[in-house]
Amino acid sequence: MPTGDTAALGYADPFDTASLRRAVLDAWTASPARFREDANAEEDLLRGGYRDRWFVELAQNAADAAERAGITTTLRVRAVDGVLHVANAGAPLDADGVAGLASLRASAKRGSGGVGRFGVGFAAVTAISDAPRVVTRDGGVVFDRARTARAVADTGAPGLADELARRDGAAPALRLVWPTGPGEAELPPGADTEVRLPLRDGLDADDLVAVAAAQAPDLLLALPALAAVDLPDGIVRRTGDIEDEEGDTVRVGARRWYVVRAEGEVPSALLAGLAVEDRARTVWRATWALPGDGVLAGPERPDVLHAPTPTDERTTLPARLLATVPLDPDRRHVRDGPVTEHVLAAAAARYPDLVRTRPAEERPALVPAAALPASAVDATLRDAVLGALRTAPWLPPASGAEDLPPAGAQVLDLDPAGPPEVLAALAERLADVLPGLVDARLAAPRHAAALAAVGVARVGPAALVDALTGLDRPVPWWRGVLAGLAALPGLTAPGTRAELAGLPVPLADGRVVAGARSVLLTGGDEALAARLAAAAIPGLRVAAPGLDDDPAARELLVALGARPLEGPALLADPALREAVDRSVDDAEEGPDADGRARLDALAALVLDLVADGHAEQDLGALALRDTAGGYRRADELVLPEGLLRGLVDPDGPLGVLDPAAADAHPRHALIAVGVLDGFAVLRDDAPAGPDHDLDDEETWWAEEVDPAADHGGDGPDPGPLVAVRDLELVADDRWDAAWPVLAADREVREALGGARPVEAAGDARPWPYTAWWLGRHGRLAGQPPTAWRLPGATAVEGLYDPVPDDVAARLDPALLAAVGVRVEARVRCAEDAADLLARLADPARTVPPARAAAAHAALAEAVAAGRVAVADVDPPDRVRTADGGVRDAAPGRAVPPAVLDRAQLVAVLPPAALVLPGTGDPAVLADLLDLAPASERVRVTVREGGRAVPWDQMPAAVAWAAALGRPLPEGVLVLHDRLRVLVVDDDRGGAPVEYTPTAWVDDAGAVHADDPVRGLVAALSS
Fold first, then answer.
1. Structural domain ending residue among the three candidates 759, 785, 818
2. In terms of domains, do 836 and 932 share one?
3. Which pLDDT band, with edges at 50, 70 and 90, does 718 fall under?
């Protein structure tokens, strides 16, 4: 049977290619379907998995040849006259190899540790060449698609001819092989094999060389036996020991890689599922490779699994995995099964070793981030890698040399933007407090997702506070922690500061308290600290000496609520305030010498702080020594030489400060804590009730504040309260000396309301407490100030006596008026009303009718305004009548006077029978005096006669109305020649009495008069 042009070769055939061709042609002739099958298989490989892998497959074959020879090789790539030359050193081509090249899926490398499958991968070269050659020193072979077609045609087999025609004369390229001709055995220096590829029409050799150059670095990394790729523009080399079991660095071209290699045996039980020839491959190998210039891949730019050359299985792992896993025939996809799972799991177990090759701050970047896997292989690898990373020690510790496993590890999460050196120092200090604390550099936000993926716990401010609670550490250690925290700007945010609120703080007494609030900072003031120690104040939270020597630590403590150990902060401390409030009770328990020393130390401490200008209200409970040898509250003592000492009752509740204590402390400090010199003034900007412990304060509030509030309608609002206290302690016989002291004190004058007159017209404000108290309880010449009038106050002359001349000479009128010395008739309370009624009823006083009427008007106005309740005032037995006299008013003694409620009754009733109401309401006055209104006591009848005359017909009336600016009354005037009325006074026996008034308005409103002008006046005033 013809075998193509073999008989005409005329040269050696060292690999007996003739037999190989004959066998193939015989098989095709016997079964054209076999020809079709081989053609389809080669085409499938070319168009499928091997369509763009020509350089990958040649490099792989070269690496296998070098490995079989026990060497490493350089792959040389050149393009000469349209032919691509790829040469390498290594085991040369042999007969088995030729048979493999000419046989699909029948590799000559069974059971070896090589990568490729001869007869499969070589098909990739047909993508660029229809006549590939493989040349060695002992001979070579050539494939030729056109030559194969001619050989098929030469068989004359009808079935083959039909199949060839059906394919337009195209035959498989790699099924028939011929020996190379003479002169083709010359190889480049050092090469054992060269593949020569005449390029198809339309292909550019330079482009193919560029493809080789682009793929060379990855192939050098993937194939250990391939040491370099020699390209026209230079050699791409790999340097370093990729075989190092512990990991090493290799450089491929200009790129450095960190690598970790592993290998092992596949358990025999797992091999059953593999193809027969693959079962002999029991050794697996895996290499993790990480580029030195950063992570290799990620969710946005996946890499691929290398097996060890590239597959189509995409991966998102930061490093590249090169592993000998089973592949499908096209070598693009991993074959699922237990061997694949075993190899991937074993490779993942070594991944932490790769992570450990990197510096601490770079390691978290090698943890697969939380993202969707790029393939099923990627998902398997990611899960296995994460599992390995969770248990293997690879996290750099904050302190010490041993790496930590993520399980049980912790990372500080205090301030992601904090200075790295501060975080590192803080983490090192806290390493023995927080077990498993990792290097602080791993706390950066970019590492958060990676550490979370492997289960590293984050220690935030609140968790740190919990960890520190209950620790017993020296003060320098605590100061270092505070300084570290203070140097982190992120901890100044209000929310974060709140999480640090419970940060433990060591105190001077050895305690460690939770939280800095109310802790006092010594700031290095040893003298003050010593005084505090002498006072032995229970519960005082003073920071341990030296704790706040670092300014940053001090600033943090202040931000968390601590206060510098300064006067205001110390005086405001609840513990000191409690010690002050308790000091007198402690003194009353009869303390021993040590106890008295502590009381004196406390007093000295407080007084020194106050003396330094740190005035504080309400320190009056401070126990100070008195002249009797005991202790009293400061506000119950007077200065030995003070103004008040000569005014108070020596047997009263006030004591005298021990002169030694008075000499030991500045006068202003003693006064500031409540020791009395002059009169003390109390201030309250918004008093809510009579709760200031002032003498008779409740009465003042009821008489002055509540009525003023009713007047204003908005509830009690006395305005700011400025009040002189302890006035009740002035001895009754010392008031003459007390008034000049009061008058000379600016604060007292302020408390008097600026010395405004208490009787200022239209002033509805409350009478200031101090003025009210002095007016009620003070004594001027033995009498209350309200019992006197100012010398020039003629409006109340006769009712009140002028203040004595010596008083008027010593005290100014404004002060006297402010404390109630009378300026005009005004009634502020029931007591005032009773006093005024008594003065009106005093027959020894000469009170003209007008002043009596003004006094009656003041009484009625006080009742109408609500300042006086009628029920609170007893009706007087005697009253001042219109004639200026005093008459009995009690029923049963005589006919009582009546309150004049109609002015015209003056014309028919005697003045002695009338009480003049002035401008006040007669009905209110009658109710207060328990008298009847005059109009209810008498009946008046006009005698008949008279004539009705219209007002506008009387010239005199018209003229006077115009002069008065008033309109004429409506109706008519009943004009009498002589007007006479009959008056019946029921209280005086009921006998009618005739009067002759000049004008009268009867009960029906008719005006009667004997003169038009008098009638007009009566009409206009009715």
1. 818
2. yes
3. low
